[in-house]
Write a structure and sequence with these properties.
- The protein contains 9 helices and no strands.
- Helices cover 68% and strands 0% of the residues.
- The two termini are 16 Å apart.
């Protein structure tokens, strides 16, 4: 069983990738990894896990605005992830969460961002479903 209806999958995967990339690009002096950790364990992401249509269909910018208001979030000083990595990590987490029907809060604990940063070189050229299957269920 998957986390929610497949009809939402492409939107969630694409928008989460764009969200992570948006944060990295717009805030190069802020810690993208800390943002990802907070976001994945947030009430906002839980709403997506639970297939709440209102949140599941938001574009990246709207999702960012919703997240910072809902969570009262402020970015931490630090270094942004570079290149295509933030987009890929966002897409990976969204697809993995759906594929293995795992809460996002649990997923971020089991597969830390630091692991995906190291695995990026070997996984990012694969189709997303194959990359998720290569990492396997945790």
């Amino acid at each position: 069983m998957r986390a929610y209806a497949e009809a939402y999958l492409n939107d969630v995967v694409e928008n989460q990738g764009k969200l992570f990339d948006f944060v990295a690009q717009q805030y190069p002096d802020k810690d993208t990894e800390a943002f990802i950790n907070t976001y994945m364990a947030s009430k906002t992401r839980k709403s997506i896990d639970e297939a709440k249509a209102y949140v599941n269909t938001m574009d990246a910018k709207t999702l960012w605005d919703y997240f910072i208001k809902t969570e009262n979030y402020r970015l931490e000083a630090g270094k942004a992830l570079a290149g295509f990595m933030p987009d890929w990590i966002g897409e990976f987490y969204a697809y993995y969460q759906w594929y293995y029907n795992l809460s996002s809060a649990e997923l971020i604990k089991k597969i830390p961002v630091s692991f995906l940063e190291k695995a990026y070189a070997g996984l990012h050229d694969l189709e997303l479903d194959l990359a998720v299957q290569k990492v396997g269920e945790v």
